[in-house]
Design brief:
Radius of gyration: 66 Å
Largest sheet: 4 strands, antiparallel
Number of helices: 13
Strand content: 5-15%
Strand order of the largest sheet: 2-3-1-4
Shape: rod-shaped
Order of helices and strands: HHEHHHEEHHHHHEHHH
Mean pLDDT: 78
Helix content: over 70%
Number of strands: 4
Length: 537
């Protein structure tokens, strides 16, 4: 430890000796470089920096009500706007307008001037919280030789940013809305085509559609019921035809002597005729009761049965009266010959008329039966085709519903885009706002003369130390007994002290005084220069 301290002390003594011996080299070099740095800093032109702050104002209406058309972040917007603002078409006119880079124009072309101006523009985001990634503000600055020029150019750049942002938003809103409207028109055309196809399919297959199945079933059930009623009516009419034919046959087969004269138009009727008429009347009454159980008295079938009942009752009364008259005359012994033919002929004509009406009814009922059978066959065919139409309609409806959903979705997007566009036009969307207008710098931002002066002083001391060390290392003079012993490797036997006369003593004293004065003057000169730079800048 003691040896290390001795070595350190010895080294420090060597450096101190070098510094003392080469003090003027060190002093002149350090002061010269410091003064040169100060002078160079004073010769550099002043540069003024004007700065403005732009705040990114978010959309005033909540996004859950109006979704903006822009999808990029603020950083992406700033980057895109920076490329637009710092374009050649923007910057080159300002170079001519403000007379920038007059000296550089002689050796630089337009591209070089634009690049030089870009180097003097600084755009930096403002992040109060380093952990926050989203940028809410950014600064724009420009450095020029004149403070007013710097402020004017910064103001123009700020307005360019705001204009480009509004232009970019307008282009995106207009482009988005136009694109969506084109897509909506295409979707509407496709939807109309699907609607037309669906309409034509329904018109082409009317009666066979799935939604008409219940109606077809109800109609088919009604047709079956009508068919049953028609067949029942046809059966009754056929029975009545048999009945009428039997009456006519009985009238024709009756002998002339059985027909009494003056029997009131129905003389000579046999007991079988009255029994048949009574059976027919009972059947008609039973049929009327069945019809009244289902229909009102005004129903056509009920009215028709009533008419037949009236006719049958009248016929039964005539037959019964004829039989009673015949019996009375037979008891009295009266002859019935020669008076019955006209009466029998009238009854036969009436029965023939009823038979013709009955035949017409049978024909009508037969035609109605065939018609109902055809309708039943048609509706059964429709019901059989309903599953096929249902499958075909399902495919059409699937395409139609997809087209409708696509159209509805696009319509909502168009409305949303139009609201976002309207919001941007009313300046209630995301926008740039100047919170700090371009400043008018009172002091130059560069060059930093204090920094240059201090750096020159530090560099002067460093270079002076190196120069002193190099000069001393080339000087091989003996300065002490140790130097002699070190170089000669021989021990010293005799040492002679230095004798100095009074005159030499006075000269040395004056020399030291002058050195101190000169050194002090140099140091004061450097300090004054640094102070001047500090005050100036």
């Amino acid at each position: 430890m003691a040896e290390e301290n001795q070595e350190l002390t010895k080294t420090l003594e060597q450096f101190a000796g070098i510094a003392f011996r080469r003090r003027w080299w060190i002093l002149l070099t350090a002061c010269g470089i410091a003064l040169a740095a100060v002078g160079a800093s004073l010769l550099l032109p002043n540069r003024y920096k004007s700065e403005a702050t732009i705040l990114v104002v978010q959309q005033q209406v909540p996004q859950r009500y109006v979704v903006p058309n822009t999808t990029y972040s603020v950083q992406e917007a700033i980057q895109s706007l920076t490329e637009a603002v710092l374009s050649r078409t923007r910057l080159l006119p300002m170079v001519s307008e403000f007379g920038l880079y007059a000296k550089e124009k002689q050796r630089l072309g337009p591209e070089g001037l634009v690049e030089l101006m870009r180097k003097n523009i600084d755009i930096a985001p403002v992040q109060k919280d380093p952990a926050q990634r989203e940028v809410n503000a950014f600064k724009i600055s420009f450095t020029a030789d004149n403070a007013l020029v710097a402020q004017s150019i910064t103001s123009k750049l700020t307005s360019f940013f705001i204009e480009e942002n509004l232009k970019l938003q307008e282009q995106q809103d207009t482009g988005t809305t136009s694109f969506l409207k084109d897509q909506l028109a295409a979707a509407q055309q496709q939807l109309q085509t699907q609607e037309q196809s669906l309409r034509e399919f329904k018109m082409r297959n009317l009666g066979e559609l799935p939604e008409q199945q219940q109606g077809n079933l109800a109609i088919l059930s009604g047709l079956h019921m009508q068919l049953q009623n028609t067949m029942a009516e046809l059966s009754r009419a056929q029975e009545q035809r048999v009945y009428l034919r039997s009456l006519i046959s009985q009238y024709r087969d009756m002998p002339a002597m059985d027909l009494p004269a003056g029997a009131g138009g129905a003389a000579g009727a046999s007991p079988n005729s009255a029994v048949t008429a009574e059976a027919e009347l009972a059947r008609l009454r039973t049929q009327k009761a069945g019809l009244l159980a289902r229909y009102t008295p005004e129903y056509p079938d009920v009215v028709k049965v009533n008419q037949e009942i009236v006719q049958t009752e009248a016929l039964l009364r005539r037959l019964t009266g004829a039989q009673a008259a015949s019996k009375d005359k037979n008891k009295n012994g009266e002859s019935a010959t020669g008076q019955t033919f006209p009466m029998r002929g009238g009854a036969t004509a009436q029965l023939q008329s009823q038979l013709k009406a009955n035949q017409v009814e049978i024909d009508n009922l037969s035609a109605g039966e065939k018609r109902l059978q055809g309708q039943i066959t048609e509706y059964e065919h429709r019901l059989n085709l309903t599953p096929v139409r249902e499958q075909q309609l399902s495919d059409l409806l699937r395409n139609y519903n997809l087209s409708k959903e696509h159209y509805t979705e696009l319509l909502g997007k168009v409305n949303q885009s139009e609201m976002a566009t309207n919001l941007a036009q009313r300046q209630q969307g995301q926008q740039f706002r100047v919170v700090d207008p371009p400043s008018l710098p009172a002091k130059p931002s560069s060059p930093n003369r204090i920094k240059i002066g201090m750096g020159g002083a530090a560099a002067g001391l460093f270079l002076a130390a190196i120069l002193a060390f190099l000069i001393d290392s080339k000087d091989h003079s003996f300065r002490s007994e140790k130097d002699v012993s070190h170089w000669s490797k021989l021990p010293l036997v005799i040492a002679m002290p230095l004798w100095i006369t009074p005159a030499e003593e006075r000269r040395r004293s004056w020399k030291k005084s002058l050195e101190w004065v000169a050194a002090t003057a140099l140091v004061l000169m450097v300090l004054v220069a640094e102070y001047y730079v500090y005050r100036r800048g």
